């Protein structure tokens, strides 16, 4: 029994590692999780696994919260003095951060309304290896095309504060694409949308990170409430290992990505997506 538990915890570690790495790189965490499940099966019920693969995203979310806490928490006492000092409630609430969260809320609406309403339908129709492979390839091509077309051009938007409300809506619809088609990548879809709108790579990535907080928290809470809290001891530890691994690996990956895109573009992720998508199609349509 003990040996079986260790094996399942090792599997959970791999799921958490894949989640933490692929959630923030624009290569599709959902797609990789679907593919990993084809080869590494957790010995759990179908309902638990359906909840587990979403809830371990909470570990990835907490990595963003820890790294960017000062950028996302709006409640603090301003130390500014003089004529430029904020007045009234704004002495205790950062107005710029609140505006940012309003934009993020707007970006969440398309996926929040349509994605949740038709979640079961989307899972039934598109949560399969072939759909994942096609989405990987299509958005891989999109990354390469966009980066090639924008080579040498200066970004129009160089801070989150410069993202307009109209841009926030359009980025939200790109995020909806990821909610419909696994393999698209939530971060990949929103980054592609932001780049098309003239947002710099760094700002596009950061906005994607912040946008993930309410989206992923909401999805995890929905799945957790749907499953209930009646975990067995084995299920509890599988969940904990997955969450912790996703948290630690996410911190490492986020810091790596932000350093990487200051000097490089997203083409390498586009080529990776295409190569992986072709391998998946080869395996499931020819070899399997």
Write the layout of secondary structure elements.
Blueprint: H1 2-22, H2 29-39, H3 46-55, H4 57-67, H5 69-72, H6 95-117, H7 119-126, H8 129-149, H9 165-180, H10 186-196, H11 201-227, H12 233-260, H13 267-287
Helix pairs in contact: 1-2, 1-12, 3-11, 4-11, 4-12, 6-9, 6-11, 8-10, 8-13, 9-10, 10-11
Report the sheet-strand fraction. under 5%
- Which shape, going by the Cα principal axes? globular
| Class by alpha and beta content | mainly alpha
Q: How is the main sheet built?
A: none
- What radius of gyration results from the CA coordinates? 20 Å
How much helix, percentage-wise, in residues?
Answer: over 70%
Overall pLDDT level: 89
| Tally of DSSP β-strands | 0
Put simply, the count of helices is 13
Instruction: Sketch the topology as an H/E string, one letter per element.
Output: HHHHHHHHHHHHH
How many domains, in number, for the residues?
1
CA-CA gap between termini = 33 Å
Detail the poorly predicted runs: none
């Amino acid at each position: 029994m003990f040996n079986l538990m260790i094996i399942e915890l090792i599997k959970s570690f791999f799921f958490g590692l894949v989640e933490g790495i692929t959630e923030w790189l624009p290569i599709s965490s959902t797609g990789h999780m679907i593919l990993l499940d084809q080869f590494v099966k957790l010995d759990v019920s179908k309902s638990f696994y359906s909840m587990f693969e979403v809830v371990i995203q909470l570990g990835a979310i907490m990595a963003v919260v820890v790294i960017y806490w000062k950028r996302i928490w709006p409640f603090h006492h301003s130390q500014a003095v003089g004529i430029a000092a904020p007045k009234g409630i704004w002495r205790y609430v950062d107005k710029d951060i609140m505006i940012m969260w309003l934009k993020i809320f707007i970006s969440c609406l398309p996926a929040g309304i349509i994605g949740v309403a038709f979640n079961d339908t989307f899972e039934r129709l598109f949560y399969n290896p072939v759909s994942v492979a096609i989405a990987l390839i299509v958005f891989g091509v999109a990354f390469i095309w966009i980066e090639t077309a924008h080579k040498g051009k200066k970004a129009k938007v160089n801070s989150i504060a410069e993202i307009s409300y109209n841009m926030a809506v359009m980025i939200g619809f790109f995020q909806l694409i990821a909610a419909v088609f696994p393999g698209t990548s939530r971060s990949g879809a929103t980054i592609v949308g932001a780049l098309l709108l003239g947002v710099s790579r760094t700002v596009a990535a950061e906005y994607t990170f912040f946008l993930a907080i309410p989206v992923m928290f909401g999805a995890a809470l929905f799945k957790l409430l749907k499953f209930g809290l009646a975990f067995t001891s084995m299920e509890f530890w599988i969940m904990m290992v997955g969450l912790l691994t996703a948290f630690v690996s996410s911190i490492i990956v986020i810091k790596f990505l932000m350093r990487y895109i200051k000097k490089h573009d997203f083409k390498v992720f586009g080529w990776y997506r295409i190569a992986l998508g072709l391998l998946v199609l080869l395996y499931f349509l020819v070899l399997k």
